[in-house]
Each structure stands twice: as C-alpha cells, then as structure tokens.
Amino acid sequence: xxxxxxxxxxxxxxxxxxxxxxxxxxxxxxxxxxxxxxxxxxxxxxxxxxxxxxxxxxxxxxxxxxxxxxxxxxxxxxxxxxxxxxxxxxxxxxxxxxxxxxxxxxxxxxxxxxxxxxxxxxxxxxxxxxxxxxxxxxxxxxxxxxxxxxxxxxxxxxxxxxxxxxxxxxxxxxxxxxxxxxxxxxxxxxxxxxxxxxxxxxxxxxxxxxxxxxxxxxxxxxxxxxxxxxxxxxxxxxxxxxxxxxxxxxxxxxxxxxxxxxxxxxxxxxxxxxxxxxxxxxxxxxxxxxxxxxxxxxxxxxxxxxxxxxxxxxxxxxxxxxxxxxxxxxxxxxxxxxxxxxxxxxxxxxxxxxxxxxxxxxxxxxxxxxxxxxxxxxxxxxxxxxxxxxxxxxxxxxxxxxxxxxxxxxxxxxxxxxxxxxxxxxxxxxxxxxxxxxxxxxxxxxxxxxxxxxxxxxxxxxxxxxxxxxxxxxxxxxxxxxxxxxxxxxxxxxxxxxxxxxxxxxxxxxxxxxxx
Length: 516
Fold this sequence. Notes:
Layout: H1 6-12, E1 17-20, E2 26-28, H2 29-45, E3 53-57, H3 62-74, E4 77-80, H4 87-96, E5 99-104, H5 109-114, E6 124-126, E7 136-137, H6 139-142, E8 157-158, E9 161-164, E10 167-173, H7 181-188, H8 190-194, E11 204-207, H9 214-225, E12 229-232, H10 238-247, E13 252-255, H11 257-264, H12 268-271, E14 281-284, H13 291-301, E15 305-310, E16 316-319, H14 321-326, E17 333-334, E18 338-343, E19 356-362, E20 368-369, H15 373-378, E21 380-381, E22 384-385, E23 390-393, E24 399-403, E25 409-411, E26 414-416, H16 418-426, E27 431-441, E28 445-454, H17 462-470, E29 484-487, H18 501-509
Helix pairs in contact: 1-2, 2-3, 11-13
Protein name: Acyl-CoA synthetase
Keywords: Ligase
Domain AMP-dependent synthetase/ligase: 7-361
C-alpha cells in the first residue's frame, strides 16, 4: 500500500490537473484537497461523526467531487441524488439516509427547496454560495477552516439508492472498513485492474453519464485515485464526446450501449474527424448491447471496448475484447473475486445453457438495504444475492442475459421500475387498473408503455391519456413518465389477482429477438 489514493497523490503533486468541469474549468489536485479538508473541518464542527451521511443534489463537476472526497476521508456515507427526481422523492432519500447535511446546486433549487423539510435548516447548504431560500451558503461552513488534513482520518463510502421493484428506493449500505482513506482507495483499484487499466499519468477518464449512478461514481472515483484526470460532461452529446476524447487524450470511460448507437449514427466524416488513438479502455454496461452494434464499435475503435455485468450490491462478470469476440453476445465471465450461480424457481442449480435466475456473490463484502432487512434477506440464497435477472452460462462459464427482471425497464441505461409508476397512475379517479412495462425503442433500448383500464363511465382516448400524464407532474420524475398510454377493456388477471403482464407485453415485442 502507499502509492495510490487521491489525498496522497495530491500532496505529492498539488499541480496535477485532477478534474475538468463541463465548461472547461480545470482544477488542481492541491485546490481540491484544500477544499475537501475545509469541508471536513466544517462538518465536524456541525457535529458529524464517522458513520453519518451527507446528500448532494449537484450536477456533474467539481462540487460533487469535493463532497465525495470529504466523505471518503472522514468516514461518512455520501449519497449523490438523482437530479431528475421531484421534491417529495428527494425528501424521501434525505430522510431515509438520515443525512446530517444536504447540499444543493442552484440548478436544482426548485425541487431541492421542496425537499428541504426533510432536514433541519442549519444543515442545508447551497454550493457556490447560491441564493437558495432556506439554505445557508456553503462558505458559512468552510470559511476560516484550515486547509490542512483533518486528524483521525478514516475511510468513508458512497451509499447509492437503488430503486426497489416495489416502489421506494433503498440505500445499498456496506459496513465501513476503518482503513486509512488512501489505503481504502487503493483497494478500489482492483476493479479497474481487471480491465488492465494502468495507474498514473498521462491518463484521463471521461465521465459521460450522471454522477448519481453507482458505476459512474465508482469508475470515476477510482480513476481519480489512480492518478487519472477526470473530464466531466454535463449532458452527453456524441460529437462533443469525440472532441473531448481528442482534446484531453482520454484513455478510459464508462458508457452505455445507447451512447454507441448515437455515435454510430454520426455522419462518416464527423466520426473520422477526431483523433481517438488515445482510447484504451472504453467500458460499457447497464443494458444489453446488440451484437451488430458492438461489432461496429470494434471496427471503429479497435480492441478497446470492454463490457461487464454487475449490480450496486456487488459481484459481476467481465467480457474482454477477446472474450467477447470468441463468445459474441456474452456479458462475460465471473471476476476472480466473484462467483455466479444460475438456479431454477426452487433455488436448484440448472445445467449449462439453461436459463435461470442469476445469483452472484463477491468474496469478502457484505451489504444490506438500509432499513429493510426483509428485502436484504429476500434477495439472498445462502451467501449469494440476485437482482432478479434471468440468464444462462455456456460451457466456458460465459454469462448471457435472456430477460431483465420480469418487470424492470432499462431506458438509456437507467433502471426504471414499473410498480412505482403504476402506484402513481392508479391514484387517478378515472383509472380502474393499470400495467406499466417496457417496449422496444431503437434509441433508448426500451421506452415506457402504460396500459390503462378506464374506470366505468370514463371514455378512453387521447384526452384521458393526456389527463393521466398531467396528473404525474411534480409527483414523478419525467424520465419515469410513460411515453404512451393504450387502453384496454379489461386487464388480464389470474383468479388470484396476479397480473399477466407477459400477455400484455408480448405483442409489442413480436419480431424482436430478445424480450428484455
């Protein structure tokens, strides 16, 4: 131990450009270190102690990075909040995580203010000293604080919220390890090491997606701890990504297949206008990548495209360029510290090439869904856990996905859970019954479809559809709104009340080779 970890690297080389904001502003490691130290001193004065949590409703860029670096050296849990959520959804996470401080950017002030009652007024802070009603400027917390390392440093963690199939999201909380923060950061480099990613400079990691996603935080944070420069995108754009890759000599990134589809749709001359020779490890996950799309990326970028399958809860697989080309369509084989188990409905292992529920375990790490021991236990099989995906293993131990969780929708790499949407639509007085599921979408993988059984006396049609959608305003993030609503006379249900969703879904997936 002893050569990695942001705080150690920043002391050794304070002039290293550690991050670049979407507007091009560059931040030296020494300045980030000073800011994160002052924040720790200020929050400790507010009474924060190891094991406490902080929440950030902030865009991609330096402010969220400072929150992350402060929490991870003070033994706190840092929860970055999805900025598409509405006030009540944000308030739920702030309250459920038992946050002791809540940081909001001016961009998200409207919903941030709506969530403010979840935490005491003296614990709400506006980053960049923005004028947000009911929030203190962050300088009140940090002004006059020393920029020296705080005493008794101990490793913290991120605690991301993962949507539950039954609606409310749950925080995935791991036990703190009590290590020195830099030593703990060095252990994180195991995962990039699997992909062959090297430490030190010159390396740059491009952040293409919102930082509230677990994988984005993990890969970006670890790249920083390995001495890479983080280059942030605010909103993903295909040509802008190519421009940034050339300008900052990007070597690695974390992407979703939707990005590939948009990149391949660029005109030929645009695609070949930029020098992409620096690319070495372009990693993708979060949704199945169509085989022809992946072949096209290999043809364009060469053998730098890596894939993995994993979950916030831990464990996973890796498909190297060679592994995937030998097993097209796979999401890879198990990590050295992970094991896979495919079982039938009775929990018994199934033969090769037989689809079943995918269970994984990661050696030496436990987790719990915060405040929900039942959910934690329900997803377990001995020391294995599942997120409910269906797949099979081939003779060489390579995993293939057949069906995402029975109901989960994956749109643009984001997990969307129908139960939460159904619960909100069901409240509408003109709705007797509702089913929500994903249907094919060439750009996003899936789009959200709602099927509604109108209440007696309510006429189905575009007017009712518009009225139902309008009722979701302010209660459900727009990314969760159905793109379209179809009507049905009577919902197909079994005598026991179980909805036959497959029956509803099947016609939309006809002619598509996988019913994800």
